[in-house]
Design goal:
The chain has 388 residues and is α+β, with helices and mostly antiparallel strands. It has 5 domains: 66 residues, no CATH class; 46 residues, no CATH class; 54 residues, no CATH class; 52 residues, no CATH class; 120 residues. Helix content is 32%, strand content 18%. The protein has a 4-stranded antiparallel beta sheet with strand order 15-13-14-16, with helices on both faces. A 3-stranded antiparallel beta sheet has the order 1-2-3. β5 and β6 form a beta hairpin. The longest helix has 17 residues. The protein binds zinc ion (ZN) (4 copies). The site of one zinc ion has 7 residues, from α3.
């Protein structure tokens, strides 16, 4: 058996990049040393480094293998660009690697964004923080975007994943899509998305206008459809086509159920901030009607005591004013389970000063002694009947 030469063994270890810190301890024993590359202490044995030919330094070995893994993981720029285009983003600079922020243009919302490749491609997250709703876009931008989608916002922008009270610019009906959903759907208005001749939509359109159909949909938008005016209980012959065109129903004999004209009453103006709407209404003294509205989120703006007759005239005065301006209803039927949605207007259409002015004018006109035959009286004549 050849004699072991500790000096030769130390030289062999030294040649592998180690500064030995102790005499030869034996072939399989840890041999304290310092790695010349990383200057970290090592304890690799003579057997592992020289006989087996393994790396002399554990720290350097780790670093090498993670560098190799990173090279393996590295994504070629063309592949990265294809992947990011699939996420509907146009790269605005060369690929910085999977760990860096990559400037791009979101082709969904047309905003410049920083894309995190790992997050999009490996974790399957949305590429755009605006589209996903994590970053708030300015109110004005959001409104402008909604308008290009065919909807007009009625309240401030709540965030792209929150329901946003708005109005279809085509059919003037109220809808509440989230901005994200409005972007995705072909027609963000559920009414426009369906055809008017769909019986369910036809019934819904009648109810929105304050009419309860008494028969099944006649199947034709121009056919007469017997219905009941929900507010007053009177039967009317409605024509769906006219109901769709006319944004606000008018019923000249209309006095609400349960309202007693011979008793003292109130004319009231309410506002609902979250719905972005105002409401005009009348009720008898002690009816609790205003309280019911308040429990549903409405707030009093003006309340004036009048005689029952005057209250009816004053309310009609305001409604005729809105009718003449062709203003759509301010809320939808489902917003007011307590009833009264046909006497609403959007705050987008009427400011508070305008509403106060109309209210005061209505009260003044109702308490003024009536001079018959006035040519300027805007209320519809008897012959007009129901304006449906
Ligand atoms: Zn090392
Ligand atoms: Zn986007
Ligand atoms: Zn619509
Ligand atoms: Zn009526």
């Amino acid at each position: 058996m050849a004699k072991i030469d500790p000096i030769a063994r130390a030289a062999a270890m030294s040649a592998r990049g180690l500064i030995l810190k102790a005499p030869y301890p034996g072939a399989d024993k840890p041999w304290p040393a310092i790695c010349k590359t990383c200057m970290q202490p090592t304890k690799s044995s003579y057997t592992s480094v020289i006989t087996k030919g393994q790396g002399p330094c554990f720290t350097c070995g780790q670093r090498k293998s993670s560098a190799a893994a990173a090279r393996k993981r590295a994504v070629p720029a063309e592949v990265a660009e294809d992947k990011i285009r699939e996420a509907n983003v146009k790269p605005l600079e060369t690929f910085p690697g999977t760990q860096g922020a990559w400037r791009g243009l979101c082709l969904t919302c047309l905003r410049e964004i920083d894309v995190w490749y790992c997050s999009v491609v490996y974790s399957g997250n949305g590429a755009c923080y605006y589209c996903s709703g994590t970053r708030q876009i300015p109110d004005a931008d959001a409104r402008a975007e909604l308008l290009t989608l065919g909807l007009e916002a009625l309240v401030p922008y709540p965030g792209s994943n929150e329901k946003w009270r708005s109005r279809c610019t085509t059919c003037k009906k109220i809808v509440d899509p989230t901005l994200c959903n409005a972007r995705k759907t072909k027609s963000p208005c559920r009414f426009c998305a369906q055809r008017a001749t769909d019986p369910e939509v036809a019934v819904e359109t009648m109810k929105e206008a304050g009419l309860r159909p008494l028969t099944a949909f006649p199947g034709n938008v121009k056919a007469v459809w017997r219905a009941e005016h929900i507010d007053c209980g009177k039967q009317v012959d409605a024509v769906l086509d006219k109901v769709i065109q006319r944004r606000r129903a008018s019923c000249i004999h209309c006095v609400q159920y349960g309202f007693k004209q011979a008793l003292p009453a109130f004319l009231y103006l309410l506002v609902h901030t979250a719905l972005g709407a105002a409401k005009i209404g009348i009720c008898n003294d002690g009816s609790g009607r205003i309280r019911t509205h308040e429990l549903n989120g409405w707030r009093q703006v003006l309340v004036t005591p009048l005689s029952g007759y005057q209250a009816v005239r004053a309310e009609q005065h305001v409604l005729n004013h809105w009718l003449a301006l062709d203003l759509p209803q301010g809320v939808s039927r489902l917003d007011m389970p307590q009833g009264g949605w046909t006497e609403t207007v959007a705050l987008r259409d009427r400011s508070l000063p305008e509403l106060r002015e109309a209210f005061d004018a209505a009260v003044a006109s109702a308490v003024r002694p009536r001079c018959s035959g006035s040519a300027t009286d805007p209320s519809p004549s008897e012959e007009d009947g129901y304006l449906f």
